Amino acid sequence: LTGGRLLRTPRQAAPELKPYYRVATRLATALALVADASVFSLGARLKRAELVTARLGDVLSQLLIVSATLKRYEDEARRTEDLPLVHWAVQDAFTRAWKALDEVLRNHPARRLGRALLRWIAPWGVPDFRPSDQLVIQIADYVQTPGQSRDRLLAGSY
């Protein structure tokens, strides 16, 4: 009901990123609940429900992207010039993850269970984390401007 606002965050986390840690925890908890409920309700049929498992895998991969993004930001001394990139990457990953989770529950083979889980996990609707157009423009400027920040971002890319 609180949307994860009461969840704890790491003490050393950057203050501007603490809401992302809360959403990631909420999403990971929802993923675990849906995966467990799917295994329990479908049993061996889960193997044949490929769209369910694929979408759950999508949620997990987006959570890994969020974790890697937050860790890199923390490990690289919290450079403020990288903050727009962090915001965009995390918001985009959350958007994709929540969409996949919503699709799992709306199309779950056990329809009643899917609807009940959706009401429980997202009672006010699926959260919308789409990056703003302003942030997208800021990122576009960032990657087009030569400099140390862009070089660090593209290190190892060819």
List the helices and strands and how they pair.
Layout: H1 18-42, H2 50-75, H3 83-106, H4 111-121, H5 133-144, H6 148-154
Give a verbal description of the structure:
The chain has 158 residues and is mainly α. Helix content is 66%, strand content 0%. The protein contains 6 helices and no strands. 23% of the residues are buried.
Short précis:
It is built from six helices and no strands. It has helices spanning 18-42, 50-75, 83-106, 111-121, 133-144, 148-154.
Major sheet attributes: none
The helix/strand order is HHHHHH
The amount of helix comes to 55-70%
Radius of gyration: 18 Å
Shape: elongated
> What value does the average pLDDT take?
87
Q: In DSSP terms, counting alpha (H) and pi (I) runs of 4 or more, how many helices?
A: 6
| Uncertain parts | none
Strand residues, percent: under 5%
- How far apart are the termini? 46 Å
Number of strands: 0
Structural class: mainly alpha
Descriptive labels:
single chain; 158 residues; mainly alpha; 66% helix
